[in-house]
Amino acid sequence: MAAVLLQRIGLALVTMVIIAVVVFFALELMPGDACSVNLGRGASDSMLAACHARLGLDRPPIWRFVTWAGDFLRGDLGISMQRERPITEIVGWRLRNTLILAGVTSVIGIPLALGLGVLAGLNPDGPLDMAISGVAIFAMTVPEFISGTLMILVFSVILGWAAGVVTIGYKAPAFELVKASILPAATLVFILAAHILRMVRASVIEVMQSDFVQMARLKGASRRRIIWHHVVPNALLPAISIIGLTMAWLLGGVVIVESVFNFPGLGRLAVDAVADQDLPLVQAIALLFGLIYVLTNLGADLVALILNPRLRTRRQ
Amino acid sequence: MTAPAPKLEVEDLLVGWAEFLVVDKVSFTLAPGESFGIAGESGSGKSTLLLSLMGMMRQGLQHMGGSVRLNGLPMMGQTDAALAFVRGSKIALIPQNPATALNPSRRIGAQIDEVLLVHSALNQRARAERVLDLLGRVRLAEPAVTAHRFAHELSGGQVQRAAIAMALAGEPEVLLLDEPTTGLDVTTQSALLDLLVDLRLKAKVGMVCVSHDLGVLARLCDRIGVMYAGAMVEEGPLALVLARPGHPYTQALVASIPRLSTGGLPSPIEGSPPSLFHLPPGCRFAPRCALVQDACHSQRPVVSWVEEGHKIACLSPNVAPKSVAHRPNTACAKGAPLLAVQGLSVDYAKQGLFAHKAPKPVVEDVSFTVVRGEVLGLVGESGSGKSTILAAIAGLAAPTAGQITLMSKDRTADLAARATDRPLSQLRSIQLIFQNPDASLNPRHRVLDLLAQPLMLYGHVPSSDLRGKAADLLSEVRLGAATLDRMPSQLSGGERQRVAIARAFAANPDLLLCDEITTALDVSVQAAVLELIHDLAQKHDVAAIFVSHDLAVVRAIADRIAVLRSGRIVEINTAQELCARPVDPYTKSLLRSVLEIPT
After folding, report:
1. Cα–Cα distances in angstroms (integers) from residue B400 to residues A234, A301, B343, in the given order
2. If exposure means fewest CB atoms within 10 Å of the residue's CB, which of B218, B373, B544, B584 is most exposed?
3. pLDDT at B374 over 80
């Protein structure tokens, strides 16, 4: 158990280092750098050289990578060229906002997906399953910018229940942001839940046909007992790693949904940073996304390790 | 005096789907405390019958007629909820594969406790005591530790014991056993059967036991029924059925069982059981029956009494049974040594970052020779290293010490190299046949392609001659040329194993390595494969190493037998001597564990 744990954590660390290397050198390969972008086309060679010297861009790339990564570890993400402020300050609040959005999405979406998945799987091909699976397939196929726009149309333009566009600033109190994230979260739940519930449904159907569920019937256990003690625990185990992977997808979805709803999060910041060619900021956000991805999957692995006795214990 | 009311009555039971019947008009009764055995080969419908005794239909099957009554209570056509109070308390199942029948994410104790929770009024403390008591009754050491384990943490024998404890928890009056010892080592099997016999005597519980192994039924049952293609063809007291089998199928089945006491090759039943979709119109056994008459092909057999309590379903029940004497094994060693294994040791050291412990050797200091034309049997329980020895000879596992020498016609070659580094002539002379032909034949290749590869590679047969050569090979394994264009999935298990044998002989080998090649086969088909290996080895002067966990099978085919335990050879001798006068205590215990059917 301890060996497996260490192995997973070690692998996660290695992955993070690789992500950092890729993020840094991918931007390094792009034509131009922070100075040439910032100073524009008319910059003279001497201006560029001065700028390079000021930012340390005249040093070899390896040296710059080590400083950048070292600073990152200390929580210093560098300085945004366009915004002329420390990136940590810009990113910090937005990271909080995006985590609030992702949190609201998960708290609603994951239990909903698990519940509906189990319901659909227990009565495969019944009317309930048809309805749930039908909606899920529809939800999976509609892209976020369409479903998001439809949400705004229905809930804010027609029904007037919620504001269509988030107008509060990025430093707004957390409570305000939770309220503001309802519609964007609903859009994300749509797709997130669909993926997880399809997986859970398949898993429930498989477990329902297993020998041990048949054995439980032959022991005289009630249907309710069979579902809660035999089917659900075993069917949800494979869902854990899927939830981890879906969280990663959520990060991509966040970029689009935050733009549609004007939500002041990391996703929208990423779009803005790319549009402004603010390279240090893009680098920092890309690295953050990568780290969140690795950490979520590490978390899913660890939860699976703790909940699944077949992974946790070994034959004596 | 009137007989006590039967516990279980099965009357004209039909189970199947559409027009296909898996269980075809089966009737029998079980008296209180009686033990009834159901014998049959794979696909005979015996497991489906057993499950339907609890009112359970297998996936996709339906109850199509007849009745099952437990204490007079109808079990057919009831919902799970209606049967819940008898299932587990009055009638309980010991499943065929306990490793998958136990919930992988709940502890053993909790799963036994569930039966008590559902069926008894005991409080939690009393239930916990009962669980430990039950685990002790099935002779699991340290019940408290086992109760806290998950199924995957236990050995095969331990899981089976836990499953028995679970079945006993509700104190059932009828216990159903589905192949209770299949997949276990012989000594484990023997200990489990002792336990079951003991439980039966103490608990006076009735039993219905399904098995393909007449030896197992002979240990456990008073009466047996023999099933063939969904129908019960013979039923009677165990001793009478085995001593005077009345139905030609039972006669042939008994004759196909290898016997330790007499040795010799068992007699196969030609052909294979009919598919459910193409059942013969008359007697289902007619196409394979040695005593078939014209009427058998068109008329369904009628039940007739052979003697008191002993009945068979046959149109001509009075035909004298065929002699069941086994054919003597005529193999003899012909002088020149072919293979010498000297001080062989193998271990599977774990490669990579996290390997730290020194591995325990799987094979340790093993030496033997194989003489041209002889069959050497390697016997041992799982984990004894018998398959690893074959892997080392075939070049699939690297020896850590020792030498393997192959003496072909004019030169001696050291087999230290892995298979990928061996010259073609060495690869040709050693051919491996695997346990499971489903896995060893490429499912996307026609039989012709499967045979063509070794023919082209080793024999340089021109493509124009391939078909003829391949057909010759098939006729040697008694398959028709029509098989050439079939895919493996279109063949029965026995036919597939014959194709695998033909493929091995296509290389024109000097040494055959047979790894449990009859384990996945029915006993009647096993007899045919044994006969085939024996005849072909004789004809082509090929030596063979025949690995099996079953001493009786090895006794039938081998000239000499080596007994393996924990990677070492404990005894090696001629088959006859080893079985008649074993020296090593382990050999003696193996011999004692063999379930010989009484005659």
Report:
1. 42, 37, 10
2. B584
3. yes
B86 touches chain A (CB under 8 A): yes
User: Domains (ranges, CATH) in chain A?
Assistant: 2-73 (no CATH), 92-312 (1.10.3720.10)
Q: Which of B419, B417, B437 is closest to B428 using CA atoms?
A: B419
Q: Are B92 and B164 in contact (CB under 8 A)?
A: no
Contacts of B154 in chain A (CB under 8 A): 315-316
CB-hemisphere CA count at 13 Å for B152?
A: 11
Tokens for B573, please give them: 């001798």
Decide which of B324 and A168 is more confident. A168
Task: Determine the Cα–Cα distance for residues B324 and B259; give it in Å rounded to an integer.
Answer: 11
Burial (CB count <10 Å: 0-12, 13-18, 19+), residue A15: middle
pLDDT: is B508 or B278 the higher one?
Answer: B508
A207-222 pLDDT tens trace? 999 999 999 999 999 9
Q: How far is A308 from chain B (nearest CA, A)?
A: 7
Q: ipTM value of the model?
A: 0.83
Residue-level pLDDT at B578: 92
Q: What is the DSSP string of B4-66?
A: PPPSEEEEEEEEEETTEEEEEEEEEEE-TT-EEEEE--TTSSHHHHHHHTTT-PPTT-EEEEE
3-state helix, strand, coil in chain B (%, to 5): 35, 25, 40
Contacts of B370 (CB under 8 A, 6+ apart): B337, B338, B339, B340, B376, B511, B543, B545
Asked if residue B519 lies in contact with residue B212, where contact means CB atoms within 8 angstroms, the answer is no
Q: For chain B, list the domains and their CATH numbers.
A: 91-171 (no CATH), 337-593 (3.40.50.300)
Average pLDDT, chain B: 89
DSSP A175-187: HHHHHHTHHHHHH
Min Cα separation B126/chain A (Å): 19
CB contact under 8 A, B114 and A225: yes
Contact A138, A203 (CB under 8 A): no
